[in-house]
Amino acid sequence: MHCVNVLNQIKVAVNTVLEIIDQLEEEDLKKRPTPNKHSVGELLEHLAVIFEADWRISNEASEEEMRNFYSGVSYKNLNSIRKGMRKNFRALKSNYMKLSEEELQSKTTSYWGVTYTRYEWLLEILAHVYHHRGQLHAMLVHCYDKDPRILMFE
């Protein structure tokens, strides 16, 4: 039951990011408010891949496995970002809904040494998505005067 609630909150974040994407133009993806930091497009690509990447990390993927995974991911336009977010969120939801209570309470360790229960990894994914959604919103509003004027929370 707890997973259903957390996944619902992730869905809220996904839906609001998708609403923001719907207001963007392809040229917005190239905007980079801070040198050596993510562009709008790179941040959206990261948001689209978080669900699959963090799932893999929570299943103890090695650093090399994650490097290989990231090198094979490419969401370079608004349509592919939309599709990737939806697909990867559906996969995360499906994966979590299949876990037993015992599996949710089992601990796994990331390749950099952080150990959480699988449920705590889900909470980490929730925090990760909300963090980057807030970054995206701030970039658009404060750097490009593009306020999406959407409710960020229900």
Automatic annotation (TrEMBL):
InterPro entries: DinB, DinB/YfiT-like. SUPFAM superfamilies: DinB/YfiT-like putative metalloenzymes (SSF109854). GO terms for molecular function: metal ion binding. Coiled coil: none annotated. It comes from the Bacteria. Keywords: Metal-binding. A divalent metal cation binds at H46, H128, H132. Belongs to the DinB family. This is DinB family protein. It comes from Oceanobacillus jordanicus.
